[in-house]
Design brief:
With 141 residues, this protein is α+β, with helices and mostly antiparallel strands. The chain is 23% helix and 30% strand. A hairpin with a 5-residue loop joins strand 2 (68-74) and strand 3. Mean pLDDT is 76; it is low at 1-9 and 46-54.
Length: 141
């Protein structure tokens, strides 16, 4: 993989430290070697974080003891999905790193309980009241 470093690149100093002969003139200390190991590990892991782009799917689980209608709406595009979920069932919207989960008493209900997805793209409804006062697992149990 070719990397072009510019003067504004935050990798410039790291690359200079790791890949130039600037440090060859002096003996590297154990601290230098430790830092090189850390930098190399971070550089090796960076593509995984960049390519993953956060959550690969937004998923909501019905953690109540009653069947409820759930929707997931992507905050990135216009993708939307909805389904009646039995207790313990899960609904996922693929490729949605940020979404709004909403629980309804039925598919025709107007009142529901919305919740923004967290950084991991998942949440579980633990208590349902149809007037926007539901309890989600991300609230803390």
């Amino acid at each position: 993989m070719d990397v072009t470093l510019t003067a504004a690149s935050p990798l410039r100093d790291i690359a200079a430290f790791l890949f130039t002969e600037r440090h060859a003139e002096r003996k590297l200390t154990s601290e230098d070697l430790d830092m090189k190991a850390i930098y190399l590990a971070l550089i090796g892991l960076a593509p995984a974080f960049v390519l993953s782009g956060g959550a690969s799917a937004a998923c909501v689980e019905n953690g109540t003891d009653e069947p409820l209608y759930f929707t997931i709406e992507s905050r990135i595009d216009e993708a939307r999905i909805g389904a009646m979920l039995e207790p313990g069932s899960e609904l996922c919207l693929p490729k949605a790193s940020s979404a709004v989960f909403t629980a309804f008493a039925s598919e025709t209900s107007l009142e529901g309980c919305p919740r923004l997805s967290g950084p991991n793209g998942r949440d579980r409804l633990v208590h349902f009241l149809p007037t926007d006062s539901c309890r989600w697992a991300s609230h803390g149990e």
